């Protein structure tokens, strides 16, 4: 199928080759692959579909073409059933090794990709839904309570969304090229107002990109103002990434302009969730050069290397701000972190973890990324009331700035304390690259300081573009956004 001529074996050859050339492959633990079993596949797919795919290795070319016709933008090579079992098996091997603590995190370099395949249908180069099955697998095998799936591929992983639309234990986030439904797979259900069903309402988060050429600032703004606040409130036990790199510059499908460096930051920003348990699984990425560089940036961060200074952060474009605003209002009723912007750092004396984290994500990180310092100086003052795990989250997140150049001045009392306890100081642990312990599910932050902090944000946002969450479009179309609260306006 000519629509599929970009999903080629060279994608893995160049990705792995770049890891070897940059000395990254040697620093990783290679995990042996296995073939997925029928039971694994049936965690998400139907028996009829599995039986049909099983027959493809024995079909003639004519029969394969005929079989393929019932699905969209996918092909069946006689070997693909075998490859799809290895892709899924590799994903599950990674998840097993992360869950049992044998490795800290990892990237599964696999093809065919998975996020478009549905219960009874192949789609968009995908046969079995590697990541959706991995989420079901960890819930069943390890009793994991909450899984976050971050789909940074440039296409909407509709297969993942359908698998979990009524399941509150799996939070699915996807951004995708949408262009008001003009872009493949052209689904109404990829829009921002589709949020999940029944008990799962609020646990599907769609960020449609209605223009091409989105840049680093657009991606970071969505992380700071949508994904990260919700992810910290959700408090996952495991983070799975549908790691498609067709969202990087030069990709013929995505046509976006984010640079490969951005994946170092996206990865870094997710690494303090779930105690650092993160499994990235390759999805798309069709510009071989951009793909290889993006894969290296992701692995650098997974290995704990400092991230490069983020390039050209000029603030989000208006179309991105419109999407951001729409997603936030669609989800305001499900996530307390979206009800207000920055909360409760002042009079509460930082004793409230959820308010503090919201302020860090919504105010401190956007300012820090835009300012682009060459050194971060973090001072712990006595009596700040910041508990160890919150302090570790802060120290971890700030290491994404200044290429990881950070100098921390700790409160001498807490230092003495930790020597007595003969356990490692939380600051040292974070500087050594350990993930911060999970904060647990965050409750709604107390509302007292909303007004004061909101005033501060209003004053700062004229000069700091990464603080903006509304754009020029609001002036022209504010009347049509009737569910936007006055706080937001
Ligand atoms: N211009 C993944 O990235 N459309 N799948 C192809 C050719 C299908 C993408 C149209 C794109 C599927 C995993
Ligand atoms: Zn894709």
Task: Walk me through the structure.
With 489 residues, the protein is α/β, with parallel strands linked by helices. The chain has 2 domains: 322 residues, 3-Layer(aba) Sandwich (Arginase, Chain A); 115 residues, no CATH class. It has 17 helices and 8 strands. The N and C termini lie far apart (49 Å). The C terminus is likely disordered. N-{4-[(3-aminopropyl)amino]butyl}acetamide binds next to loops. The site of zinc ion has 7 residues, from loops. Belongs to the histone deacetylase family. HD type 2 subfamily.
What name does CATH use for the topology of the largest domain? Arginase, Chain A
Describe the global form.
Answer: globular
CATH class of the largest domain: Alpha Beta
**CATH architecture classification name of the largest domain:** 3-Layer(aba) Sandwich
Helical content (DSSP H or I, runs of 4+): 25-40%
- Mean pLDDT across all amino acids: 90
Number of helices: 17
- Strand residues, percent: 5-15%
Instruction: Flag low-confidence runs.
Output: 341-350, 475-489
Q: How many structural units, i.e. domains?
A: 2
How many DSSP-defined strands?
8
Largest sheet, in brief, is: 6 strands, parallel
């Amino acid at each position: 199928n000519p629509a599929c001529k970009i999903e080629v074996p060279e994608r893995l050859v160049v990705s792995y080759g770049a890891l070897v050339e940059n000395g990254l492959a040697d620093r990783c633990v290679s995990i042996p692959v296995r073939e997925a079993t029928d039971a694994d596949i049936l965690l998400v797919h139907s028996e009829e579909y599995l039986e049909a795919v099983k027959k493809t290795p024995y079909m003639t070319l004519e029969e394969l073409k005929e079989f393929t016709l019932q699905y969209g933008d996918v092909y069946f090579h006689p070997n693909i059933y075998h490859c799809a079992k290895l892709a899924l098996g590799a994903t599950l091997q990674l998840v097993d090794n992360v869950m049992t603590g044998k490795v800290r995190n990892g990237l599964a370099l696999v093809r065919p990709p998975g996020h478009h395949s549905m219960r009874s249908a192949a789609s968009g180069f995908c046969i079995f839904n590697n990541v959706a099955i991995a989420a079901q697998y960890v819930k069943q095998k390890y009793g994991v309570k909450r899984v976050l799936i971050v789909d940074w591929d440039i296409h909407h992983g509709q297969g993942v969304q359908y698998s979990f639309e009524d399941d509150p234990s799996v939070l699915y986030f996807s951004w995708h090229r949408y262009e008001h439904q003009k872009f493949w797979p052209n689904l109404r259900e990829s829009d921002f107002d589709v949020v999940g069903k029944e008990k799962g309402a609020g646990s599907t988060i769609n960020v449609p990109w209605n223009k091409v050429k989105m840049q680093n600032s657009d991606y970071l703004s969505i992380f700071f103002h949508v994904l990260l606040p919700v992810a910290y409130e959700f408090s996952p036990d495991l983070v799975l990434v549908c790691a498609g790199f067709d969202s990087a510059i030069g990709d013929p499908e995505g046509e976006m302009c984010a640079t490969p460096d951005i994946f170092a930051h996206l990865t870094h920003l997710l690494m303090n969730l779930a105690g650092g348990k993160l499994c990235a699984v390759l999805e798309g990425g069709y510009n071989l050069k951009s793909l290889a560089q993006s894969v290296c940036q992701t692995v650098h961060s997974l290995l704990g290397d400092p991230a490069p200074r983020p390039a050209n952060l000029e603030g989000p474009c208006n179309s991105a701000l419109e999407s951001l605003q729409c997603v936030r209002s669609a989800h305001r009723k499900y996530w307390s972190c979206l009800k207000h912007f920055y909360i409760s750092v002042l009079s509460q004396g930082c004793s409230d973890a959820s308010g503090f984290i919201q302020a860090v994500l919504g105010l401190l990180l956007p300012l820090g990324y835009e300012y682009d310092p060459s050194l971060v100086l973090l001072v712990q003052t006595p009596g700040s009331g910041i508990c160890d795990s919150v302090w570790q989250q802060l120290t971890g997140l700030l290491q994404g700035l200044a290429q990881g150049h950070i100098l921390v001045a700790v409160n001498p009392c807490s230092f003495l304390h930790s020597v007595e306890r003969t356990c490692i100081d939380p600051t040292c642990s974070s500087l050594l690259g350990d993930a911060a312990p999970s904060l647990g599910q965050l409750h709604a932050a107390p509302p007292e300081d909303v007004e004061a902090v909101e005033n501060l944000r209003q004053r700062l946002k004229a000069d700091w573009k990464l603080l903006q969450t509304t754009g020029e479009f609001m002036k022209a179309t504010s009347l049509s956004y009737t569910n936007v609260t006055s706080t937001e306006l």
